[in-house]
Amino acid sequence: MATKPSTQKASGANSAPSGSRLAPPIKAVKLRHPFRWIVAGVIVLYFAAFVWDAAVNRPVYDWAAYGKYIFDKRISEAALVTLELTVWSMAIAIVLGIVLAVMRLSPNPVFQGVSWFYLWVFRGTPVYVQLVFWGLIAAIYPTFTLGIPFGPQWISVAAADVPVFWIAVVGLGLNEAAYMAEVVRAGILSVDSGQSEAARALGMSWFQSMRRVIIPQSMRIIIPPTGNEVISMLKTTSLVAAVPFSLDLYMRARDIAGPIFKPIPLLMVASSWYLLFTSILMVGQYYLEKRYARGTGFERMKASVESTEEIAT
Amino acid sequence: MTAESLFTAPISLGGDDVMVRAEGVVKKFGHNVVLRDISLEVKRGEVMCLIGPSGSGKSTFLRCINHLEVLSGGRLSVEGRLIGYREKNGVLFEMKPNEAAAQRRDIGMVFQRFNLFPHMTALENVIEAPIQVKKMPKAQAIERGKVLLDRVGLGDKFDSYPAHLSGGQQQRVAIARALAMEPSLMLFDEPTSALDPELVGEVLDVMKELAKSGMTMIVVTHEMGFAREVADTLVFMDAGVVVETGEPKAVLANPQHNRTKAFLSKVL
Ligand SMILES: Nc1ncnc2c1ncn2[C@@H]1O[C@H](COP(=O)(O)OP(=O)(O)OP(=O)(O)O)[C@@H](O)[C@H]1O
Ligand SMILES: [Mg+2]
């Protein structure tokens, strides 16, 4: 086979031969699943019994108190504080996580070492211990100074003047950054090396290829675990009592419950708010994942469904 | 900008007519010497086909021309400019990354596995580098991108994502994407090897037309028919050295070296 005929032309679409008739749709008796119905029935029955029991037989739930405090202004304000803690600490974690991941993957051994050391420390100690430590920071470092060692100093802040809220945010954010760094690194490594080669061959700089080619593709890998990290962070904020910071949802609910001796209804109140937020986050995550599935199998599936519909009509 | 001129190689600015000059190029990976001593010249407008057994260093040589790999020895220049280095008073200075990137703009590359950006449509793939790298206004880039896609026979696929295109269509988008940077040299690394046999022709047709328009091309390929018909020079490489160079019909019909004979007897 010395020469190959190279005269074939590209046909635009693989069109089916026209005029052919489709076989009629299959008519068959549907397979029944009686066992599924039985199991579902049993579960529903038990669950209904549990709910009825909780509503009627367990005065300690104190649903009246639950109703009274679920929309209490102090609770909704505390819920907002919890959200703010989550947003700010995740913002720090994502930005720092990207920096750490890129440092870890850079050819510069100093950057690699620094990134490795950071992860070793912050993943190797419990977040609760870290938060206690940040609470004591003022005792160790009374002032934070920005400047050149033994040289000029530009900004100096007394540690005692930093609001406890921000100490909590920093404590949560720096811990989470170590985990985000691993998430981002896994995402970047998941992109085929041919992609950065193609970008470089087109004359794009390292930064351009990261921003336009590598990072958008790694998002598909990065977003699902990041969603999990956000949801996990929302719940981890309940540990800021260690700092100690007491205006978040969990601490506020406990502080209200204390004097009135109603811990259970207020725990239910706090849990309801946490559940509401995590539910909203899950919906957001679903749409983000869909957005970043562009040009992948997911898209393709949708297209083929649409084209079969076209055939059907 | 007309459709015609998009497919036309830039005119020589006079002077030297050598597009690529390799002098004693050496490339090692650790102790593995992949390129031993490659010396060759590619003239402006010339189409050179590079053949040789697997592992002989063909891809590595192409990647050196594009500075995707750093040379271990020898000199390599494109349009008279050294690749990867600046020379000052006989001393070589390594280029900064942005200088190396600037050099790559003028050299287009087409890969065996296409390497299209999967999160961008065909048109977005083509306009990406002109907008990002050349800072071309978006409207102009789109206009030119459409003309280019039209020229490679994909005028109806602007908005398709690579996953929705056949291999042959993807490779034609990849060629359009490289051409969008108006390169003076095109490198092809086995552009049809990953394609189903019935899709090879459509890609080779585009490459033939490109060759006819005067583009300087170095093509690593196993398509001997293409080499015979289109190439000006055929180079046979083995174990990191150029074994034989010549006019394609002559080399294919009457190879001078035993290694060339042995290789051709297997592939023809
Ligand atoms: N990045 C790398 N690191 C180490 N060795 C490499 C690297 N790239 C290529 N090589 C080695 O260099 C040799 C030549 O590889 P190259 O890809 O250039 O061959 P080729 O002629 O293109 O072969 P093929 O026809 O299979 O594509 C091979 O032995 C390969 O293992
Ligand atoms: Mg190769």
Key terms:
heterodimer; A: 313 residues; mainly alpha; MetI-like fold; two-stranded antiparallel sheet; 2 strands; 4% strand; flat; disordered N terminus; disordered C terminus; B: 268 residues; alpha/beta; six-stranded mixed beta sheet; four-stranded antiparallel beta sheet; 12 strands; 36% helix; 26% strand; globular; binds adenosine-5'-triphosphate; binds magnesium ion
Structure description:
The complex is a heterodimer of chains A (313) and B (268). Chain A is 69% helix and 4% strand. Chain A is mainly alpha-helical and 313 residues long. In chain A, a hairpin with a 5-residue loop joins strand 1 and strand 2. The longest helix of chain A has 33 residues, at 73-105. Chain A is flat. The relative contact order of chain A is 0.11. Chain B is an alpha/beta fold. In chain B, 36% of the residues lie in helices and 26% in strands. A 6-stranded mixed β-sheet of chain B has the order 8-9-10-3-11-12, with helices on both faces. In chain B, strands 2-1-4-5 form a 4-stranded antiparallel β-sheet, covered by helices on one side. The termini of chain B are far apart. Chains A and B meet through helix 8, helix 9 and helix 12 of A and helix 3, strand 8, helix 4, helix 6 and helix 7 of B.
The succession of helices and strands of chain A, N to C, reads HHHHHHEEHHHHHH
- Structural class estimated from helices and strands of chain B: alpha/beta
Overall 3D shape of chain B: globular
Strand order of the largest sheet of chain A: 1-2
Query: What is the subunit organization of this protein?
Result: heterodimer
Question: What is the overall shape of chain A?
Answer: flat
User: Could you give the order of the helices and strands of chain B?
Assistant: HEEEHEEEEHEHHHEHEHEEHH
Arithmetic mean of pLDDT of chain B: 91
**Helix content range of chain A:** 55-70%
Residue-averaged pLDDT of chain A, rounded? Answer: 85
Fraction of residues in β-strands of chain B: 25-35%
* Class based on secondary structure composition and strand pairing of chain A: mainly alpha
- First-to-last CA distance of chain B: 42 Å
Share of β-strand residues of chain A: under 5%
Radius of gyration of chain B: 18 Å
Q: So, the CATH homologous superfamily of the domain at 83-248 in chain A?
A: MetI-like
Number of helices, where a helix is a run of at least 4 consecutive DSSP H or I residues of chain B: 10
CATH topology of the domain at 83-248 in chain A: MetI-like fold
Cα separation of the termini of chain A: 46 Å
